[in-house]
What we know:
nine-stranded mixed β-sheet, 286 residues, alpha/beta, N-(1-d-carboxylethyl)-l-norvaline Dehydrogenase, domain 2, 55% helix, 2 domains, Rossmann fold, single chain
Amino acid sequence: MRIAFFGTGKMGFPMAKRLVLAGQEVRVTVHRNPEPAHALQGMGATLYDAPETAVRDADCLIAILPGDRQMEELLLRPSLMDAMAPGAVLVEMSTASPRSMEAIEAEYGGRGLRVLDAPVSGGVKGAEEGTLTVIAGGAENALETVRPVLEVLAAKIVHVGGVGAGKAVKAVNQLIVGSNAVIVSEALRLARHLGVDLEKLYHVVSASTGASPIFASKFMKMAKRDFAPNFTLALMKKDMRIGLGEGGDLPLPMANLAYQLYLMLGKACEGEDFSVISTLFEEVGE
């Protein structure tokens, strides 16, 4: 399948790499940082001079971009949409607002192009290993067209409804993830205060009702102050902001409080994993 791939950052690069190594015809362009595109070219991807030339006669366009603004600036270019082949599928994998996704779908649909709203969960590790979860919103025929491509990237593909539903489900998921990490941080602080053996606590909770994927993946990393980024604090702030913004005036007190705590860490920690939230409790407690 001919695939134009836009967005070769921390998540996009390993995803594009998997597609190249799987034998797909991957097309990339240089964005702000030329290194990922050139690295992919060295693996077998084709480097194009502009997005419009990359999408010409492509079967699908995969985009995984930082957020709403970048999505709209790139994907809503008339020249880009006009260059795409009729019936081509936009697979929009960014974490962004449902409203932006619906606006994009309206423009693409009017040009005879198909749209799949397909954010992912699983972090950089999942992108590298091909074990992501794809949260797909859009027409069944669009999903089935690109399913062989998505299966290279994901262990699970869940169709959740129409365009916008994927972004909505991802927003809910991220509120759960961000809020859960705050509770795990507090649990670590209490355990230390009580003098509990952290390794033994980890094994007990992992086999008990307090278990969660966030506890499993973050508790011991928090304990060891290992904040090497799998999913950065900056991205968690952005994702929680999307979910809370979509809620409007809906009371979401726990999620709002968790978001405010992330904001208290400031910009200095934004490149670290969001589990760095555990250091805030250390500082407050001293």
